[in-house]
Specification:
Elements lengths: L3 H8 L11 E4 L8 E8 L4 E6 L9 E2 L2 E6 L9 E6 L2 E2 L3 E4 L6 E2 L1 E6 L2 E6 L15
Antiparallel strand pairs: 1-2, 1-8, 2-3, 3-4, 3-7, 5-6, 8-9, 10-11
C-alpha cells in the first residue's frame, strides 16, 4: 500500500517547459538538427511527438523521429506497405526556439502581473502559447 507521501507526489500535476504547438529543434538522436513543432505531449512519460510541416501537402505533416511500420497484404487486392509513424522523443532531446532569434534556448518562468508566463532565457522574450495545430 502506498504511503501518504507517495500518493501526494503521484497526484501532483507535472509541469513541463514545452507545450503543444511550440516550435522546437531536436538536439540529440538520429534527427539531430531538424526543426518542427510539438504535436503532442505526455507529461507522465516526459515524452513528446514532433512533426515537421510538409510544403507539398500541408495536411500531411512529416513525422520526425519516425519509425517504419510494415503492413503485409491480407487479401489478394491489398498491397503491402511501409508506413512512417511518429515515435515519441524524450523532452530533454528537444529545445524550444527563441521567438526573436529563432535559435534554440532554455525556458524559464516568471510572473508578469498576476500570471506565470514562460520566457526564452537567451533573449528574455515572452513565449506566446501557440494554438495547437489541427491534424
Amino acid at each position: 500500500m502506498p504511503t501518504k507521501a507517495e500518493l501526494k507526489v503521484a497526484n501532483k500535476p507535472i509541469k513541463l517547459k514545452i507545450r503543444t504547438g511550440d516550435k522546437v529543434e531536436i538536439i540529440a538522436g538520429k534527427d539531430k538538427g531538424q526543426r518542427g513543432y510539438i504535436a503532442a505531449v505526455s507529461p507522465r512519460e516526459n515524452k513528446c511527438i514532433v512533426l515537421q510541416e510538409n510544403p507539398e501537402n500541408p495536411e500531411q505533416p512529416i513525422p520526425l523521429n519516425a519509425v517504419i511500420k510494415h503492413f503485409k497484404a491480407k487479401n489478394q487486392g491489398q498491397r503491402s506497405a511501409r508506413i512512417k509513424l511518429p515515435a515519441a522523443i524524450h523532452v530533454s532531446n528537444v529545445m524550444v526556439l527563441d521567438p526573436k532569434t529563432g535559435e534554440p534556448t532554455r525556458i524559464g518562468r516568471r510572473k508578469e502581473g498576476d500570471k506565470l508566463v514562460r520566457y526564452a532565457k537567451k533573449s528574455g522574450a515572452t513565449l506566446v502559447d501557440a494554438a495547437p495545430k489541427k491534424d
